[in-house]
Write a structure and sequence with these properties.
The structure is a homotetramer of 350-residue chains. Chain A has helices spanning 11-20, 41-44, 61-67, 80-90, 106-113, 120-123, 131-139, 149-163, 193-196, 210-222, 255-266, 319-334, and strands at 2-6, 27-32, 70-73, 93-96, 126-128, 143-145, 172-178, 200-202, 228-235, 241-248, 272-274, 296-303, 308-315. The first copy, chain A, is an alpha/beta fold. Chains A, B, C, D: This is Putative [LysW]-L-2-aminoadipate/[LysW]-L-glutamate phosphate reductase.
Chain lengths: 350, 350, 350, 350
C-alpha cells in the first residue's frame, strides 16, 4: 500500500515515518514539508538515516492523490481542515492527526478552539480514530481523525466505568502529566531545555481543549451529559503520559467487580494492557513501561473511605497518542492485522 | 544558640546541616548518625566540605541535652517517638522531622501508620509545625512536629478556601507530584536511577498517609469532617513538589473574590508567594521557581463550567517540606526574625 | 532456533529478552535467574507483558543444553567463567555477555580484573564478538564474548585510523560518557536517583578495565603496542554512550582523505553509520539518535593546528554495547541475515 | 555600593541578580534590558519575586554612570565592546561578562571570534577576571573581564601543573561537559527540551573559542607556547561543568608530590576545594556537589602506565563560570571580604 505524509518534519511526523519505514505492508511515496522542502528526510530526522532516502517535497495534492492510497495529514490544528477537505473531494483516504475533525458538533470548535469550522458537513463523515471505541466505523471510513494524546488515555481508562454507569458523572477529575514532545517542536522560552527541564508546570488547569473530545466520547457511551474537569501538567521527560482519572462511585463496588468490567471491555484488545500487581514494585500504569510502543496500560486503585476510584492510564504520546494510533487506524482501514508494523516491545529502561 | 541534629546522614539531615552551617544565630554542637558515626560529615555530604569540620557521633541523649538548646530529630517514622520522648523528659526543646508527633488522635496512628502510638499523652503537647497555621502555639512549644512535605503544600493551598467555607468538602482531590529526594535515601530497585528516571509513578493512589494530617488540620480550620482524596506521583526530578488541589465551589465566586481570600490570609506571610500572571509564560506555581528556597508558591485557576477550582502549590520538599520548615520553626521558637538563615533566593534554572 | 538466557533479570538480560521475543527466527526455551526463579518474567520486566509468558527458572545446565541451540550468558564478571566452561564441555554454542572471555592473555585478567582466570585454555577458543572486527571467526565459533559497551564504541571509531597507521599511538585519549544503565541494576547510594541524577562523575579516570580489550584489539590491528588512556564518566541519562577519542595524526591528512579511510572500512557495514553534516544542527554522532537501535554512529573532526583528530562514536550501551551485539553475533553464528530481529529505527526524541 | 546590570534578562543576568539581591554591601540601582524594558524583573525571573521590585530600563549610560559605582555588562559577545568602551570613558568601574575583553592580543579576536576588535587599546587595560590568577591586578582595575565558563575550570585544574612545569605541553586535551544553561537562553531547534534532553552532543570538537583564553593564560604562567586541544560536550543537565584535562607528565611524579603542588597553590583559596577520597563514593570532582555555589572543585588521578594525569574540575557554569566570578571580582575590586555575598553551600541533591 502506498502512503504519503503531509507535514512530516515535526515530532509526530518523524514518529510516523519511524513506524512507516519498517511497516511490512507500506511503501512511502511522498513526504511533504513546507519548511524543509528539498532537504533529505534524514537531515531533519537523523535517526532515520539508512532507513529512508527521500527528500521532503512541497505539498502537491494532485501528486499525493495519484501516488498514494492513504494520506496522513500531520499539520497544526486549524491548518489541517482545508487540506483534508481538498483531499476528501479527490476521494483518497485520509488519516488526520490534528484536532480539526475530532469533534462532531461544529459549535464545539467555537467553544474549545475559538474558530468556526469551515467544513462543518465533513465533521459527520469523519470517524474518531480510537479503534477500541469505533473499530467498525473506522473500517469503512474515508476520513479518520486521530485522538488527542491525553484524551485517548483518559477515554481508555474511563470507558468501562462509564459504559457500565457506575460513576458520579458530575465530579470526574482528569489530571494528566505529559512530556515535552507533546507540545510539538516549536521553540520558545518555555520549551528551552534550561527552562523546561525540571518543571511540573500546570499549563491549562481549566478548560483544556481535550476536555471537548473526552466529553463527546463519554456522552456517546452513556447517553447523558458528562462533566469532565481536566488539568494537564508538563513534566520533565520527553515522551509519555500518565493520566490520573479521579472519580466517585455511585455505589459500592469491590475491586474484583471492577476488574471484571475492565476485562470484559479490554480482554481482547491487543494495545490495552491491564496492570495490577499487588505485591511487586510495579503496581500501577507508568509510562516508563510503554515508551516507544503502542500500548495504553490501564489500572486502578480504590479509596473505599471516599468511595473514590483512581483510574490510571499510561501511554507514549507520540505512539498511542499520535503516530501509533494513526498506523493502527491504517491497519484497520486497510484490513491488515491490527498489530502489523506495531509489534514493538516498549523500550525500558530508557 | 546551640543545636544538635540526630540522624543527619540522610537527605533531610543533609539539607538541615546545609541551612544550619550558614544560619547566623546558630552553632552546631553535635550531629549524630548510627550508620556513619566516626565519619567526617563532609565525606557523606560532600557539598558541605569547607563549611563543617565535625564528625558524626553516636547518639547520646545526655550529651545532646547538655550541649544543645534545641535538638532536631531526623530519623525515620516510627523510630522517632522513643527518642523524642526521652528528650522531652530531659526538658530540651525538640523539632521533630518525622511523622511521629504530627497527628493528635492516637487512633490515627493505627489507621494511617499501622501501629499504636507508644506515647499518646505526648501527642497533645506537640504542635503541628506550620507557622502559617499555628505560629502562636509554636512560640511556646517544647515539641514541634514538622509537617509532611506534600501535606504542607496542600494545606497552604486549601487554607483560605476552607477557612472561608467556600468548598464542597466531600469532593476534594489532592493530586501531588514529587521528586526522588522525597522518598528518602534508601537504595532499592525502585529508586535506582535507571528505573526511577523518566517515571510518572502513582505510588499510593488511595490512602496515602499524608491524608491523615491534611484532614486533621482542615477539620481544625472548619470544625467539620472533611474528606480528602489524595494521590501522590513520583516524577522525574530530585527536588520539588507540585500539589494540584481540585475542588468544587459551593457557590459562584469570581476570580477576584477568591484572590481576596488568599490575600487576606497570606498578605503578610514571607514564605507564601501568591502567583498569577495572566499573560506571561509563568502563570501558575511551578517548583522550578522555588528550588532551594523556603517558599511555597500558591495560585489557582477557575473552571467556571464545572464550578471547579484548581488550587496549586509548589515547594521544595527538602526545604518548606522538611528542613526549611524545621529552621522556620526554630526561628519562631527562639524568637528570631522568621527569615533568619532562610533568606535564599530560589536557584533557577537548575 | 531455540535459545536460552542465563541471568535474565538484569538490565542486559531484560534487553536481550526484548530483542528475542520479536526475533523472527528464535524461540526462547528457558530463562533463568537465581534471584527471581519462579517469578513471571513480566513481573520483573513489565515492558514485556503480553510478549512472554515464561517464568524464570533456576539454572540447570543439562536442561538448557537439551532445550537450546544457543545459550546466552548474562551474569556478572567473574561469575560467568565457570558456567561458560560447563556449557562449553556440553558442546552447546555460547554467547557470553560478561568480560570473562574477552581477553586472550590470561595475565590480562590479573592486570585488569584482579583475579587469575580459572580456564585460561578456553580464552583462545573464544572469539571477541565484534562482527566488524571478527566476522569470519564468529561464524564458526562455539564461544563468542560480547565486547564491553564503551570498548566497542572506541574500537569502531579508531579502527580505520589504526588499521591505516595514521596515528601517534602513544597519545590516544578515550573519554567516554555513559548512562546509568551501563553500571547494571545494583542499587546503592551512588545509583540512587537523587544522587545519580545530574552527575558528571568521572568514575575510573585511570586504569579502567575496558582499556585492556581496546588495547588488545588495536594491537591486533596494528601489530604494535598501542597505549590507550581511558576515562569514563557517568552522565545523567539512562541509555547511551558517547566516546570521544582524542588522538594525534602522524602526518597531515585532509578531512577528505580521512573520510575515505572510514568509508573503505565501513561502507558495507549495516550497523555503523558515518555521520557528518557540515551545516545542519546534527553534525556529529550523538547517542540521542541511536537509542534503542543497534547502530554505532561514527564521525570525526579535525583540529589542524594541533594535528589532532577527534573521533567520536555513539551507541546504545544496552544494544550495540550489549544485547544488540549479542543478537548480531547470534545472527552471524546461525547464518541468518545479520539484521534479522535488529531492524529497529532509533527512538527519537525520547 | 551601588551597582547596575546591563543585559539582565538572560540566564547569566538572572543569576547575577540572584546574587546581588542578597549581597549585604550592594544596592541595585538599575537593571537594563533592551527586550524587556518596562517589565517587572520578577515577571522574567519568577524566582526573584519578593526580592526585587524594579522594572527593566532601557540602557542609558549616563544614568548608569550617575547612579552606579560599578556596572556589570552581561550582553552577548561582540555586543559588549562598544558599551564597555563608552562606560570606560565615563570613568565608571566595569565588570564585563562577555568575551570581548578577555584576550590581550587583538589578533586573537580575528582567530577565535572572526572579527577585528574595535578597541584594541582597551584590551591591555582589561584584567582577566580570575582572582586565583590575577588578584592583585583586579584590585586596581577599572575593567575586569570575567572568564569563559569552561576556560576557568580548565585553568584552575591546570595551573599547579603548568606553573611547576611538569607537563608535556604539546598533548594537553581539555574535554568539557556542560549543561544547557551554558549556551544561553536563545530558543531554537537544538535547545528545545525534547531535542536537547538526553544528548551527549560534541558541539565544537576542535577550535572552540575558549581555547584562546586557556592558551593565553597558560602561556603567561609558563612563558612558553602551550597547545591545548579542547572539545566541549552538551550534556543533559541545566547547570554544571565538568572539565576533564588529560595531560602527560614530563617525568615521574607520585600522587603525593602532585598533591603538594596543588596544595601550595590553592591552600588559601576559599573557592577552590581540593577533592580526593580514596575509599568513599565521591572520589573526584563532580558538579553535583557545587551547584549554586561559587566553588570550583579540583582533583586528579594518575595513570602511571601511560604517565598520564587526569586533572578534573567541576563548577557551576552560572556561578564560578559567570555571575559568581563577577561578584567575586566585585568583592576584590571594592575591597570587600572575597566571600561576601557568596557564602552559599552547594545545593545537593538537586
Amino acid at each position: 500500500m502506498k502512503v504519503g505524509v503531509i507535514g512530516a518534519s515535526g515530532f509526530v511526523g518523524g514518529e510516523l515515518l519511524r513506524l512507516l519505514v519498517t511497516h511490512p505492508k507500506v511503501e512511502i511515496s511522498m513526504v511533504t514539508s513546507r519548511q524543509k522542502a528539498g532537504e533529505y528526510v534524514h537531515r531533519i530526522h537523523p535517526s532515520l538515516k539508512s532507513f529512508i532516502n527521500l527528500t521532503f517535497s512541497d505539498m502537491n495534492l494532485d501528486k499525493l492523490t495519484d501516488s498514494c492510497d492513504i494520506v496522513f495529514v500531520s499539520v497544526p490544528h486549524g491548518k489541517s481542515n482545508q487540506i483534508v477537505n481538498d483531499l476528501f473531494k479527490r476521494g483518497v483516504k485520509i488519516i488526520d492527526l490534528s484536532a480539526d475533525f475530532r469533534l462532531k458538533n461544529p459549535q464545539d470548535y467555537v467553544k474549545w478552539y475559538g474558530w468556526e469550522h469551515p467544513y462543518p458537513d465533513l465533521l459527520s463523515k469523519s470517524v474518531y480514530g480510537v479503534p477500541e471505541f469505533h473499530r467498525e466505523k473506522i473500517k469503512g471510513a474515508q476520513l479518520v481523525a486521530c485522538p488527542g494524546c491525553m484524551a485517548v488515555t483518559s477515554l481508555l481508562a474511563l470507558k468501562p466505568l462509564i459504559e457500565n454507569d457506575v460513576l458520579d458523572t458530575d465530579h470526574i477529575i482528569v489530571d494528566s502529566k505529559i512530556g515535552s514532545s507533546g507540545a510539538g517542536g516549536q521553540a520558545g522560552s518555555a520549551t528551552h531545555h534550561a527552562m523546561r527541564y525540571g518543571v511540573i508546570r500546570p499549563y491549562k488547569p481549566a478548560k483544556h481543549r481535550h476536555t471537548g473530545e473526552i466529553e463527546q466520547e463519554l456522552n456517546l457511551l452513556s447517553n447523558k451529559k458528562i462533566h469532565v474537569s481536566m488539568t494537564p501538567h508538563a513534566v520533565n521527560m520527553v515522551r509519555g503520559i500518565l493520566t490520573t482519572n479521579h472519580a466517585f462511585l455511585k455505589k459500592n463496588l469491590s475491586e474484583l467487580e471492577i476488574w471484571k468490567l475492565y476485562r470484559n471491555i479490554y480482554g481482547k484488545e491487543i494495545f490495552v494492557r491491564l496492570i495490577r500487581d499487588k505485591n511487586g514494585i510495579y503496581k500501577f500504569p507508568d509510562p516508563k513501561f510503554v515508551i516507544a510502543s503502542n500500548f495504553c496500560d490501564v489500572g486502578f486503585d480504590l479509596d473505599e473511605e471516599n468511595n473514590r476510584i483512581v483510574a490510571m492510564s499510561a501511554s507514549d504520546n507520540l505512539m498511542k497518542g499520535a503516530a501509533g494510533s494513526a498506523v493502527q487506524n491504517l491497519n484497520v482501514m486497510a484490513g491488515f492485522d491490527e498489530i502489523t508494523g506495531l509489534r514493538f516491545t516498549p523500550v525500558t529502561p530508557v
